[in-house]
Structure formats: C-alpha cells, structure tokens
Amino acid sequence: MSEIKDELLEALKARDGSAFLKLAEDAHYADLASLYQDLEEDEERNFIVGTLSPESFSDVLAELPDTLREEALERYQPSQQRELLSALSDDDRVDILQDLSDSTQKEMLDLLSADEEELTRTLLNYGEHTAAGRMTTNIGRLPLETTVKEALNTLRPLQDSAETLSRIFILDEQQRPIGFIRLRDLAFASWSTPVRDIMFPVQQTILATADQEEAATMVRKYDLLALPVIDESSRLLGAITYDDAMEILEEESTEDIEKLVGIAGEQSEQTYLNTHLFIHLRRRVGWLLVLGFLAIASGYVMMRFEEVLNSAFLLALFLPMVVATGGNTGGQASTMVIRAMALGEIETSDSLRVAWKELRLGVLQGLLLAITLAVITLLVLPAFRPQLPEGLALSSFSLAVSIALCVQVVTSTLIGALLPIFARAIKLDPAVIAAPAITTIVDVTGMVIYFTTARHVLGL
Amino acid sequence: MSEIKDELLEALKARDGSAFLKLAEDAHYADLASLYQDLEEDEERNFIVGTLSPESFSDVLAELPDTLREEALERYQPSQQRELLSALSDDDRVDILQDLSDSTQKEMLDLLSADEEELTRTLLNYGEHTAAGRMTTNIGRLPLETTVKEALNTLRPLQDSAETLSRIFILDEQQRPIGFIRLRDLAFASWSTPVRDIMFPVQQTILATADQEEAATMVRKYDLLALPVIDESSRLLGAITYDDAMEILEEESTEDIEKLVGIAGEQSEQTYLNTHLFIHLRRRVGWLLVLGFLAIASGYVMMRFEEVLNSAFLLALFLPMVVATGGNTGGQASTMVIRAMALGEIETSDSLRVAWKELRLGVLQGLLLAITLAVITLLVLPAFRPQLPEGLALSSFSLAVSIALCVQVVTSTLIGALLPIFARAIKLDPAVIAAPAITTIVDVTGMVIYFTTARHVLGL
After folding, report:
1. Distance CA A303, CA B83 (A)
2. Same structural domain for residues B106 and B24?
3. How far is A318 from chain B (nearest CA, A)?
4. B245: distance to nearest CA of chain A, Å?
5. B28 touches chain A (CB under 8 A)
6. Mean pLDDT of B394-406
7. Partner B contacted by A153 (CB < 8 A)
8. Structure confidence at residue A60 (pLDDT)
9. pLDDT tens digits, chain A, 460 residues: what are they?
10. Which CATH number fits the domain that encloses residue B444?
C-alpha cells in the first residue's frame, strides 16, 4: 500500500476531517478510489463522502468499480449530486450513468442541465462497448480557415475543461476531421500562419458504432494520443484518448485470460477480494458443470476397454500421462492460436498454414516425447519388476505406449490449433474453445487412441 | 489488410519506386512495418530498403519485431546506417541496439556521434526490462526560476525532436523533478508569469532500475502522459511515455497468457506464423516433458488401487470426471489469483483471506456438483443397467462418487488458489504454478481421493 493511502487511512480512523482534506488535496484520485474501495464500514465511506467536496469526489467516483458507484452516489443530496455530475467529463459521466439502475439513471439525468442531458442521452444510446460509448467530446476543434492567433483565442476557454489539447482537430465545412495540429505547433508558430499550412493529415478514424476493442487496438498500433470518432457521414463526434484505450485493453486482456480457463461472463471491475462470493460462483460453476459431465464420456471409453486394461494392468501406469500430455499440448496450441487471432495475426483463411505448422510441430513434439518414454520404459521400468502377462515382452509394451503417446500428441496439437479457427469461422467466440474444453475433448480421444493402440500392438 | 497496405504491395510487386514512395509518404510506419514483415522474398525487402530514405525507414525499423531488425539494418551501407540511427529517438535506438549481435552492436555504436554514443551506452547498461531501459530522454525540462517567455524560448528548439511536450518537467537545483506544466499552461499564460506559479506538483516518479512492468502499471493507474524516471539521488533521467507503457502492458499480457498454459520463455515479438518452428518447439516442449512425466504419478496411484477398480469396474465411468473437474476448478482458482496478484490486488499477506474465500467457494461448488452427480447416478444410470458387484446398492455407489467429487473440488480449489501465493512467498514466479501444473497435481490427489473414498464407503 502506498504511503499516502496509509496516512489517509490514519486521518480517517481518527475522523480528522481537516487532516484528511489536506492529505486528499495531494493524493491522486486513483489512490482515493482504492482507499474507498478497501473500506468495509458504511460509516467510514460516509466520512469520505462528507469530507470531500462533490467536485473532488467526482474523479474518485469515475475510478470506482461499477458496482460501487450507485451506492456512493446515493450518499449525496440531490444538489450535491448535480454538482458532482457537472464536474465529470462527458465520457466519465456516461460511463457512470450506464451502470446505474434505470430509476437512479433517470433521476440523475433529470438533475443535469438541458445541454448536458441531451449530450448524455445521445452518448448513452451508443452502448457501453462501442467507440462512441467510450469517447470524450471535450476536444479541441478548429475550422479550416483559422490562423494561429484565432486558434489560440478559440482554445483558451477550453484550457481547463478539454481532456486533451495535445491533438486539435481541423474540420472542413461538413465537420469532417481532415487534419490535426499539436498544441506545440500553435505555441511556436507565428500568429498569422493559417492552421491549414501547419496541420498534419488525419490518417486514422473510427466509426462511432465500432467495438471499443477495435478503437483501443488502433490507438496502440498507431501510437495515437487521440483517435477521432466519426459518424456515418464522417463528421467528428469526439475522440478516444490514450488513457481510455489503455483501460479498455487491460479489461479485454483480463477477460481473455479468464475465458481461457473457463471463467464466464464479463470481468468484474471490482478486485478479487471485493467481489461477492456468489458472483465468483456464478462465473465459475457453469463451465465446471458442462465440462464435468462431458468428461463422463472418457469414463465410458475406459469402461468399454475394461478387458484390454485388465489383461495388462500395467497399462494404467501410463494412461494418465498419455491422456494429460494431449491436454497440455492441445491447451498450448489453442492458446497460441486464440491470442494470435485476438492480435489480428491470423484470419480464418490462414487455417491451412496454421494446420501445416502445428502438424509439423505436433510430429516433432510427439517423436521427442515418445522416444523419451520408450527409453524410460526400457531402461528404468525393469528395475521395478513390472507384471506383464505371460508371453508379452517389455519391448512390445514400450512400443505400444510410445506409439500411443506420439499419436495423441499429434492429434491433440491439431485439434487444439484448429478448433478455435473453426469456432470463429462459424461465428462463435474462439475463446470458448480454450484450454479446458480442448482438454476435455482430447481426454476422450486420448483414451480411444491409448486402448486401441494397446489392443492392436499387444494383440490383447 | 488495410487499403494502403494493398496499394503499397501493388506498387512493390510492380517495382514502381516512385509510386511506392508517394504512397509511403501517406502511410503510417506501423503499416509499412507490417508490410515489410509479411514479405517473404529477400529481393522485395531490398526494394523497400532501397526505395525509402534511411530516415523514413528508421520509424519502420523501430516497429519491426526484434528478430527482423538486424537483417534489415544490414541491408544499408554504413553511411546510411549512421543516418538511420541518428534519426531514431534515443529509446528506440537503445531498444534496437539491445537485440543486435554483439559484433553488430559494436559496429553501430562506432557509427554514432560521441554524444549519442555516450548516452546510448549509459541507457544500454540499465538493461532491457528496466524503467530506464525503456525511457526516452527527449523531454522538456526547465529550471525552477523561469518565466513563461523564457520557457517558450527554451522549448522552441525541441519542438521537432521532443517525444512529448505535453508534460514539461520543472527541476530544482539538484535536477530533481519537483513540478510539471502542460504545454497548454504555457500557451495561454501571460509571458511574465514564473513557471513555479503555474506548475503542478510531481506526485509519481519511478527509479531507473525498477521493472518496466511496474512503470507501465503506474502510467495506467494514474492516467499519466509521461512518468518521470529518476536515479537514486532523485535526479530526472527521462520519462516513460503513455505509448511505451501501452506496448509494455501488451507484451506482459501475452506473456502472462502464455505462461498460464505452460509456454515458456519470453514472448516472441514476431507474429505466430512468422515465428520459426524450432522457436515454437523450444518454448512448448519443456513443460510438456516435465508435466508428462509427473503424470506417471497418477498412473502409479491407479495401479496401486487395481483391486478397488476391479471389484467395481463401474467406478471407471466417473473416474475421469472427478479427476478432471478438480483440474478445471484448480485452474480457474489459480488463474484468478495469479491475475489478481499481477494487478496488485493481492499480497502474500492476504493468503488467509484468499483461502477463506476459496474454501467457501469450493464447498459451494463441490456441493452443487455432487448433488447434480447424485441425482444423475440415481435417476439416469439405472436405465443403462450398470453392473455392480453382488450386494452393492446403487445408492451406496452414488454416495461414494458424489462424496469423492465434492472432496476433490474443495481440495483442488484450495490448492489452485494457495500454490501461486506460496510460490510468490518463496520468490518464484507465481505463473509457473498455473493451470497445467495445478491440473497435474490435482490429478494425483484426485486419484487418491476417488479410490480411497470408494474403498471406505463401499467397503471394497
């Protein structure tokens, strides 16, 4: 925990309002939000709300996880709520209103001024996961026919409210962003220069309705400070700034990671420890049930091969190894492919190239593992005096399990690599076919491969 | 593929230098780098290198994956290499030199001017994964006793070279960053204002030797444009900018995801399809071998319980399910905990709270799954006329497998949650104890739990 948080906590525990306020002035809103979130007593949260002005609490509120915002907002009187909402930047305000219950959202909208309300309603209509739903409209805009002096005069009133003045967009008569200038270009140019002479062309824009992840990926790829968001007529609506992009990418990475182990649903914005037990349960138990009952298929295969197993029970020694290695290699292959698809490196049309690569990789891995297993069974196993049926040589046994291992590794690697591509081709989220699902599938194929190979090679 | 890339490719295939150059002027360097990377013929890459000036290629070079940089650089003559290296920002130059072979790195250092060489050597010494190894030194710095007019004059010569002028740091006499101003504060203030009157305090700094991930996390958490990097005497060395932070976070997320499925080593900066087969093999086969041979322990347990299995072979039907469900829940728990640790939400000291949460979750999940299994075994199984040994009631069998499932889920959830915390406590990377390792471990414990429960409940 950071030093300032410790000091704030001390002032809070002592209920020392003036000390707390003094510390809060120097603290970053991210630290205040983290402090608020750690508190467990209602009365302590009331102390923070009662001590900070609605205006200073507005930044803290924007930083809080979704699930804590409504209760925090409701600790204020309506007149304070109005003050707080007006102090928010438009994208934060939309983000907060989005997650409120319908009745509270309506109450809050009624508190806003007519202008604020109209803008907020428009942005709310775009939906939470779109570029427009995450953009800010507080950006610098200039008409094409402007001089540096006029530009500085136009921008001066914005200097405190604009989220970024590092990129100022130049609009044509149809309000389309055709260029941008950096504030430094204005600051160091002579006052009579027309902005069109010093502007750079706008190369990247994104449609209002595009997915937020697409917008964030563009910001990262092209190292942008602000990505202009446009409507269908190419008119400038707002911009996605670098800090929003970073937040979006972080959320998406956590979601990707969770999906890979079969944790369902949207990532909770609360921290692990603050998330309610039932929310954890709801997100985790679904896949456990589905995969658990699919795994009965493996058991069914094993029962069908009862005779094979019983005629050489030593086969049990390497059964879990062969089956599990398939799960591991299939999980690796699917994760690599899913990540490559998420980063835009692989399309459905690349499936043959992926298959060819993974086939060669599978064969190499399979041979390597099989040879190691063969050496171990031949050299190490005799020391333990394994019980093999009359007339069965250890070398045949060794050959059988090694072949099974090799076949299992090759097929599992291919299944792991191709199923996510197949899922995308039929418009499913490829992450659904992640490691746990692949493991369950190749458990079944592994059992079949193992016992079939044993039956044929050993003649059981 | 983007439109501009298609057009560039067409000009390239036609070997039309002037058309290519014209298109390249409007193209973003990220698109040019992606085009270069897609090319498979040596002669095509030579065309790009021969057509673009060394200066315009410098941005493209910085965007290329590590493994392609040396061969690209070597397509130029030494005098062009010098031009290219000088055109690079200092952090990109260090990043590129870091990954060259020792002899090429020396050659390139010799090409630099004395000043550039000294700076580059200093930065190289910090190491690739430190804050200083990723920082830029091209930032605005002003002494404390400066007026707005003097500041603008000092910064004017930097306007083209500085990576960011959005944050300008104010230094005291010991070169410590005590404040910052935004360019907008200079642009709109009266010329006689002292900068100390309009500066904001610097609240976040990072040590040169700190890990790059820590720096990137701070940039994200505090929504910074530039995080000042300081030495042990708190002197300003440079800054980590938002775009570097975004790149670091993306690399670390991919590495985290790969570690979670047992893919070892540093993430390749090349795309999936461009990475050589042997690099894929080297990163993937290690854990396959280790986990594969650990899985023999599961087989050993199964062999030891040969009698139990043979006296009621129906047990085989639910064996994979009980074992695999433990792997799934353990994988989920460990992933949640590892991600929460990576995001700084959990410390080692929280282990009791984590254990308590996962214990309750494990019990809830275990009961839910066990009850479902009991219902299925009692209602569905009879239709398949299962073979049970003389004198053994289906209800006892159902009770035994359900108890085993519940115990396996509870222990696996706890093992999955606590092993990563334990790993961190003994200074291991928690991600090493990720899903595949947990699965292998709880496969063994699952076998023991299953057969022991069956033996006791069924009296076998």
Report:
1. 72
2. yes
3. 6
4. 9
5. yes
6. 95
7. no
8. 92
9. 468 888 999 999 999 999 999 999 888 998 999 899 888 888 999 999 999 999 999 999 988 887 788 889 999 999 999 999 999 988 889 989 988 888 999 999 999 999 889 989 988 999 888 999 999 988 899 999 999 999 988 888 887 777 777 789 999 999 999 999 988 888 888 889 999 999 999 989 999 999 998 999 899 888 898 999 999 999 999 999 988 898 888 888 888 777 777 776 665 556 777 778 888 888 888 888 988 899 999 999 999 999 999 988 999 999 999 999 999 999 889 888 888 887 777 888 888 888 999 999 999 999 999 999 999 999 988 888 888 888 888 999 999 999 999 999 999 999 999 999 988 888 887 766 677 888 899 999 999 999 999 999 998 7
10. 1.10.357.20
Residue A357 located in a structural domain: yes
Q: How far is A63 from chain B (nearest CA, A)?
A: 10
- Clarify whether residues A234 and A312 are in a common domain: no
Q: Please check whether residue A435 touches B, CB under 8 A.
A: yes
The domain tally of chain A equals 3
Report residue B99 CA to chain centroid gap. Answer: 18
CA-based nearest distance B375→chain A, Å? 13
B225 plus B306 within the same structural domain: no
> Is the separation of the CB atoms in B109 and B121 below 8 Å?
yes
B388 touches chain A (CB under 8 A): no
- Whether residues B177 and B313 share a domain: the answer is no
Domain range holding B382? 295-458
| Range B412-423 average pLDDT | 92
Q: What is the pTM of this model?
A: 0.78
Residues written for chain A: 460
Last residue of a domain, one of B126, B155, B172: B126
Q: According to the model, what pLDDT value does residue A107 have? A: 92
Query: Do residue B96 and residue B188 come from a single domain?
Result: no
Pair A19, A155 in one domain: no
A83: amino acid identity, one letter: E
Q: Is residue B274 in some structural domain? A: no
The answer to whether residues B154 and B224 belong to one domain is yes
| CATH number for B160 | 3.10.580.10
pLDDT digits (tens, 9 = 90+) for A271-300: 777 778 888 888 888 888 988 899 999 999
A301 CB-side CA count, 13 A: 21
Please answer yes or no on whether A339 and B368 come within 8 Å at the CB atom: no
- The verdict on residue A289 lying in a domain is no
Domain-ending residue, one of B126, B152, B169: B126
Residue A101 maps to which CATH number? 1.25.60.10
Please state, in angstroms and rounded to a whole number, the distance separating the CA atoms of residues B344 and A132.
30
A80 and A150 belong to one structural domain: no
ipTM score above 0.85: no
**A204–B369 CB contact, under 8 Å:** no
Using CB atoms, which residue from B287, B306, B335 is nearest to A258? B335
In a mutational test of the A interface, the residue from B321, B352, B387, B439 whose CB has the highest number of chain A CBs within 10 Å is: B321
Q: Give the model confidence (pLDDT) of A423-440 as tens digits.
A: 888 888 776 667 788 889
Q: Kindly state whether residue A264 falls inside one of the protein's structural domains.
A: no
